[in-house]
Design goal:
Blueprint lengths: L1 E6 L7 H4 L8 E2 L2 E2 H11 L4 E6 L3 H9 L1 H5 L2 E6 L2 E6 L9 E6 L6 H7 L9 E6 L2 E3 L3 H11 L3 E6 L7 E5 L2 E6 L9 E9 L13 H11 L3 E5 L4 E3 L3 H12 L8
Parallel strand pairs: 1-4, 1-8, 4-7, 10-14
Antiparallel strand pairs: 2-3, 5-6, 8-13, 9-15, 10-13, 11-12
Helix pairs in contact: 5-7
Length: 258
C-alpha cells in the first residue's frame, strides 16, 4: 500500500522557517518533519511513498537524493578528481521507494491528490496525510478499521491540540495553572486518512479543496468513516508548535518516536 504525503504548501505562518524551504522540510530534532512522518508509516511496513511537491519542491528532492549524506557518517576518498562515498554508520537502513510528483505551487489539496491518480494503479486504496502533523496513530489499526467500515474514506479523529493553559480560579484567586490540557469533547480531523480509489471521482480540478469540498460530499453520501485516536497528535502550524515538538524530541519524550 502506498502513502501519499501532501508536501506542497507555503507554510506562511512559519515564514522565517519557510523562506528557503517547504514546510515539510522544517526541522524537528534536527530532521525534517517529513522524515518523522515517513518513519511512522515505515514502522507499520508502509515503505512506498508518493510525495506531492509544490512550493520549493526541489529542496525535498535534493534532500532525499543526498539522503545518506544528510543522515549518516560518511567516509570520502578524493582520488584523482573522483569522490567516493561510503556509509560507515549503518544507521539508515530504510528500504523506501519514493515518487516525487510535481503537483504545482498553486494547486489545492484536492487537486494534488487528483494529480497522483496515475500512480495509484493496482492498489484499491492508499494512505494519505499532510506533511506537517505528527501523531502516534496506529496505522495498522487505522487500515483495519477502514476495511471493516467499507467506506470510500476514513479519517483519523483526534482531540484538538490545546493552545492555551487552563486556569483554576477560586474566589478570584488562581489556585492552579496547567499547560497543554486536552479537553475531552469534540474531535477534529487529524489528517491521517485511508482513501479508496473512488475518491478521485469526487475531485474536480486543481482548485478543489479536499477538506471543504470532497469531505463534505462524502459526508452527504454517508461515505466518510472516522477512526478515533486518543493518543498524541500535534500540528506544526506556528513557531510555538515547532518549539513544542522540538522540546518533546530533544527530551526523548516524543510519543511519535515508536
Amino acid at each position: 500500500m502506498k502513502a501519499v504525503i501532501l508536501a506542497g504548501g507555503l507554510g506562511t505562518r512559519l515564514n522565517e522557517e519557510t523562506k528557503d524551504m517547504p514546510k515539510p522540510m522544517v526541522r524537528i530534532g534536527g530532521k525534517p518533519i517529513l522524515l518523522h512522518i515517513m518513519n511512522l508509516y515505515s514502522v507499520y511496513g508502509i515503505n512506498d511513498f508518493i510525495i506531492c511537491c509544490g512550493y520549493k519542491g526541489y529542496v525535498i528532492k535534493e534532500y532525499f537524493n543526498n539522503y545518506f549524506l544528510h543522515n549518516s557518517d560518511i567516509e570520502m576518498e578524493l582520488d584523482g578528481g573522483m569522490i567516493k562515498h561510503k556509509n560507515i554508520s549503518n544507521n539508515n537502513n530504510n528500504n523506501w521507494k519514493i515518487l516525487f510528483a510535481d503537483t504545482g505551487e498553486e494547486t489545492m489539496t484536492g487537486g494534488r491528490i487528483k494529480k497522483i491518480k496515475k500512480y495509484i494503479k493496482n492498489d484499491n486504496c492508499f494512505l494519505m496525510t499532510y506533511g506537517d502533523g505528527l501523531s502516534d496513530v496506529n496505522i495498522k489499526k487505522l487500515i483495519n478499521y477502514h476495511n471493516k467500515k467499507n467506506k470510500i474514506a476514513t479519517l483519523t479523529a483526534v482531540y484538538p491540540s490545546p493552545r492555551f493553559g487552563v486556569l483554576g480560579i477560586n474566589n478570584g484567586i488562581v489556585n492552579s495553572f496547567k499547560e497543554k490540557v486536552v479537553r475531552k469533547g469534540l474531535r477534529i480531523n487529524g489528517g491521517y486518512f485511508v482513501l479508496n480509489k473512488e475518491i478521485f471521482n469526487y475531485i474536480k480540478n486543481d482548485k478543489t479543496i479536499f477538506e471543504t469540498e470532497v469531505l463534505t460530499k462524502l459526508v452527504k453520501k454517508n461515505e466518510l468513516a472516522a477512526y478515533n485516536h486518543n493518543g498524541f497528535w500535534e500540528p506544526m502550524d506556528t513557531p510555538r508548535d515547532k518549539k513544542y515538538l522540538d522540546e518533546l524530541w530533544n527530551s526523548n519524550n516524543a510519543p511519535w518516536r515508536i
